Amino acid sequence: MSQGVVTLPLCNSCNRPVKPAERAVHFNCPNCHETVIWRSEKCRKFSRRYKCLNCGFEGP
Ligand SMILES: [Zn+2]
Ligand SMILES: [Zn+2]
What we know:
Helices cover 8% and strands 20% of the residues. It is mostly beta strands.
């Protein structure tokens, strides 16, 4: 963990930090509505699947 760096949200598909400059999207899990799913610009583009860590829901 580096110091002085704002914690970035992790993409639910590729598990990489989502940079503020990226045109990423985030939304509540469509199944449990309890967790926020993040998708990076690339994962959106390639329609990678994401998985909700709370309920295990997988979506395109
Ligand atoms: Zn991603
Ligand atoms: Zn969920």
